[in-house]
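Deliverable D2.4 — example input (structure tokens):
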């Protein structure tokens, strides 16, 4: 099976503690249709990539879009696998190997991973955050608020892993890692005396197709917002919504009698999440709904933050955040709901901590220098996130708004012209460039986006430059006093994925290099 990025394997080698468990102890969680061989032998690790299978491993043959793990069973055995979990009959069975056939190897991988690491989520208060946009920021804000009140908290998010006080960037290019890595990290958090964890619960991670989070017991479920995304995977918006609401269904099934949900009252999809929570307590927040449990009014926005009045029933507090954009007020309200309820305190008591909250790498990150124009990077890559960020950028731009962005290959193609239309509505100059073309033709992706920007004139205020480094350079070269140049879609990500190679990438550093080449200090 093809290797994951080297960074992924090095990280996982660090976080997965060595342990041994009799294979027969892992089987009660399953309903095998067939077993061949000795189930009393010890299993020392779990593997689903033949290239990273260690001696004594239990290897899972996973089906996939591009490869089938059944083709790599022999390779895994050659590397030392003692047992194999498979979903279809095999042509050859080796007498020294134990074979377990199940209906769904991905579902089995999740169940076995939880059992192998001794169900660590049951020892933690697990807070899941789902939605289309704002997940990583909300995860970080919840953790910061809990840490402010002396509750040690771990993180598993698109941007960051935080375990036992050690924070590392997530360079896996998977917002929700596969089940063995999830449960290994949770086990390490337990072993390092953390009792809370905030997990970014993506639709891919929640989906029964992938089962990455299927055996995490969630005590708190948080919903940020919902807009069209990842339909190439889910097939329809209805399926996307259904997979998102699974987090609230899982919370509702928690053994914790105090489990609760947090829902954005301003979002049209919010009631779907309320219904999914069953009889569990729901806290609502908003900046429009005045009937929410907590809401904000009197919002005064600045380029670097927002002042607002924080309301609950019968009490109001003046406060501020030093994070730009109204969407960050929403993220902060979500975090306040979750942290205050967990701490057993009022959101007003936590309000004094809000000015100390910091943002997430690659999210509205300013590139500093001696320019007379502004430069920032952000992860915005969906129509929903464009609708939130572009009006904000335009409002605080005294000159022209220049944006650089693309769209992911082998992903939702219908969103591309919508991105183009939003860019044309708010931006003065648009540079379309590679985001992650994967197996698609990069120029075709850019032309798909450009169809939505029909009001713009090619080579005058609309430029198609697949080479992202060159696109950023040209955008910065055009900038003049008062302009704002925003590079969108990559944010914190450490690579650009092409059909036959992966290009290491650091968006912030690429911007700095381009500025220095233009004679600026950055």
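Example output (designed residues):
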């Amino acid at each position: 099976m093809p290797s994951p990025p080297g960074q992924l394997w090095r990280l996982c080698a660090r976080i997965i503690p060595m342990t041994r468990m009799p294979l027969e102890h892992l089987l009660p969680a399953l309903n095998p249709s067939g077993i061949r061989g000795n189930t009393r032998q010890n299993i020392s690790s779990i593997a689903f990539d033949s290239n990273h299978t260690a001696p004594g491993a239990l290897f899972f043959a996973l089906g996939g879009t591009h490869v089938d793990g059944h083709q790599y069973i022999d390779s895994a055995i050659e590397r030392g696998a003692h047992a194999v979990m498979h979903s279809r009959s095999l042509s050859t069975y080796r007498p020294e190997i134990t074979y377990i056939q199940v209906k769904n190897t991905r579902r089995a991988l999740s169940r076995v991973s939880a059992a192998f690491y001794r169900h660590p989520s049951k020892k933690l208060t697990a807070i899941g955050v789902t939605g289309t946009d704002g997940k990583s920021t909300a995860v970080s804000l919840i953790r910061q608020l809990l840490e402010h009140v002396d509750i040690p908290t771990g993180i598993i998010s698109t941007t960051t892993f935080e375990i036992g006080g050690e924070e590392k960037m997530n360079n896996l290019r998977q917002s929700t890692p596969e089940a063995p890595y999830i449960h290994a990290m949770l086990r390490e958090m337990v072993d390092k005396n953390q009792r809370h964890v905030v997990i970014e619960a993506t639709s891919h991670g929640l989906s029964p197709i992938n089962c990455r989070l299927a055996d995490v017991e969630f005590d708190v479920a948080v919903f940020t917002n919902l807009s069209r995304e990842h339909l190439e995977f889910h097939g329809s918006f209805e399926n996307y919504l259904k997979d998102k609401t699974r987090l609230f269904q899982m919370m509702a099934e928690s053994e914790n009698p105090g489990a609760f949900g947090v829902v954005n009252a301003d979002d049209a999809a919010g009631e779907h999440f309320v219904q999914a929570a069953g009889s569990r307590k729901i806290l609502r927040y908003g900046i429009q709904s005045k009937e929410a449990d907590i809401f904000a009014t009197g919002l005064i926005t600045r380029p670097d933050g927002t002042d607002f009045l924080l309301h609950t029933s019968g009490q109001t507090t003046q406060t501020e955040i030093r994070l730009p954009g109204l969407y960050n007020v929403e993220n902060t309200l979500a975090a306040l709901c979750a942290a205050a309820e967990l701490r057993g305190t009022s959101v007003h008591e936590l309000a004094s901590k809000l000015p100390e909250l910091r943002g997430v790498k690659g999210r509205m990150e300013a590139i500093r220098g001696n320019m007379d124009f502004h430069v920032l990077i952000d992860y915005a890559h969906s129509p929903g996130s464009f609708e939130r960020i572009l009006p904000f950028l335009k409002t605080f731009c005294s000159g022209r708004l220049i944006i650089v962005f693309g769209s992911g290959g082998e992903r939702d193609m219908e969103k591309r012209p919508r991105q183009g239309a939003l860019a044309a509505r708010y931006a003065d100059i648009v540079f379309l460039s590679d985001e992650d073309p994967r197996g698609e033709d990069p120029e075709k992706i850019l032309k798909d986006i450009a169809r939505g920007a029909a009001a713009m004139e090619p080579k005058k205020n609309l430029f198609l430059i697949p080479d992202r480094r060159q696109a950023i350079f040209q955008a910065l070269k055009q900038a003049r006093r008062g302009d704002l140049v925003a590079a969108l879609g990559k944010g914190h990500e450490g690579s650009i994925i092409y059909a036959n190679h992966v290009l290491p990438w650091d968006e912030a550093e690429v911007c700095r290099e381009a500025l220095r080449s233009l004679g600026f200090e950055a």
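Residues 155 and 231 are 27 Å apart (CA to CA).
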